[in-house]
Amino acid sequence: MVEYLTTHLWLVWTIVVFVCLTLELSSGDFYVTCFAIGAVGATLSAIFHAPLWLQVLVWAACSVLSIWLIRPRLLRRLHDGQHERLSNADALIGSHGVVIEPIEPGGSGYVKVDGDAWKAVSAAEDTIGIGEKVKIISRNSIIVTVARV
């Protein structure tokens, strides 16, 4: 078996490619993908019967080059338009909800947004009654400020 693998190193490098791609599924940072790209280069050099030291050198060079040239582009494409990731509470701003406890002027009440109840205040001059639809316009800690829709 060892003799077979040493004479067919392209198969070993192909296995390395698939192992790296499988590991990438659990990491998501694209480093392991770059090692897989390097292994593809080493596979090609093995197909042309390059010595093992050259195959390892090709693998290392291709891996480093892909980390330097390809990984940044992959990350930009993956996270395009997501420069600022909002936390769960910050993602509420702009959401719509329904008042479940009246919100008095200068006081507070509760609104239900996506199944969760949030303490709410309003800048409105009058009471916002139960069942009225509101939009969350800001947040201060765990208290949201709402406006009528």
What do you see in this structure?
With 149 residues, the chain is α+β, with helices and mostly antiparallel strands. It has 2 domains: 77 residues; 59 residues, OB fold (Dihydrolipoamide Acetyltransferase, E2P) (Beta Barrel). The chain is 46% helix and 22% strand. It is built from 5 helices and 5 strands. Strands 1-2-3-5-4 form a 5-stranded mixed barrel. The radius of gyration is 28 Å and the shape is rod-shaped. The termini are far apart.
Short description:
Strand 4 and strand 5 form a beta hairpin.
Summarize the helices and strands and which ones pair or pack.
Blueprint: H1 2-7, H2 9-27, H3 31-47, H4 52-69, H5 71-78, E1 96-101, E2 108-113, E3 116-122, E4 133-140, E5 143-148
The H-and-E topology, N to C, reads as: HHHHHEEEEE
Count up the domains: 2
Shape: rod-shaped
Distance between the termini: 72 Å
Main β-sheet: number of strands, strand sense, barrel status?
A: 5 strands, mixed, barrel
